[in-house]
């Protein structure tokens, strides 16, 4: 039974899985989108939404420290707190979306594109 078990193991030890997801979150925040497998995309979405929520705190120093617990690079953490999080100040969750993309060459694993949601005001401008 899977009572109170959150997340997938993704066939990796805990340390490797967390480092992989932290690197995926860092790349997503740096580039705005990332292509990965569907299982990883679902886990990435959970972690990325938490990072942006932590970046929305009023105290900038505390927000940067909280984001740096997950994001692996300092410049990306500053970008999350100063550029990405303010875009979503009026939004309560759902900062990322993913689309099924294609099948990976080699093992035919289903892939997906994970991207940050653009606000309607920004799209209109």
UniProtKB/TrEMBL annotation:
Gene3D superfamilies: Ribosomal protein L17 (3.90.1030.10). Keywords: Ribonucleoprotein, Ribosomal protein. The keyword Iron does not apply. One of its GO terms (cellular component) is ribosome. InterPro entries: Ribosomal_bL17 (IPR000456), Ribosomal_bL17_sf (IPR036373). The keyword Transcription does not apply. NCBIfam families: L17. Part of the 50S ribosomal subunit. Contacts protein L32. Belongs to the bacterial ribosomal protein bL17 family. PANTHER family: LARGE RIBOSOMAL SUBUNIT PROTEIN BL17M (PTHR14413:SF16), RIBOSOMAL PROTEIN L17 (PTHR14413). This is Large ribosomal subunit protein bL17.
């Amino acid at each position: 039974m899977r009572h109170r078990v959150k997340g997938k193991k993704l066939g990796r030890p805990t340390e490797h899985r967390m480092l992989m997801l932290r690197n995926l979150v860092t790349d997503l925040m740096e580039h705005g989108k990332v292509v990965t497998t569907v299982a990883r995309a679902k886990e990435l979405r959970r972690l990325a939404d938490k990072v942006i929520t932590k970046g929305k705190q009023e105290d900038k120093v505390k927000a940067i420290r909280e984001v740096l617990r997950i994001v692996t690079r300092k410049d990306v953490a500053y970008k999350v707190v100063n550029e990405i999080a303010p875009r979503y100040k009026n939004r309560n969750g759902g900062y990322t979306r993913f689309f099924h993309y294609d099948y990976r060459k080699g093992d035919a694993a289903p892939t997906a594109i994970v991207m940050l949601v653009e606000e309607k005001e920004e799209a209109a401008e």
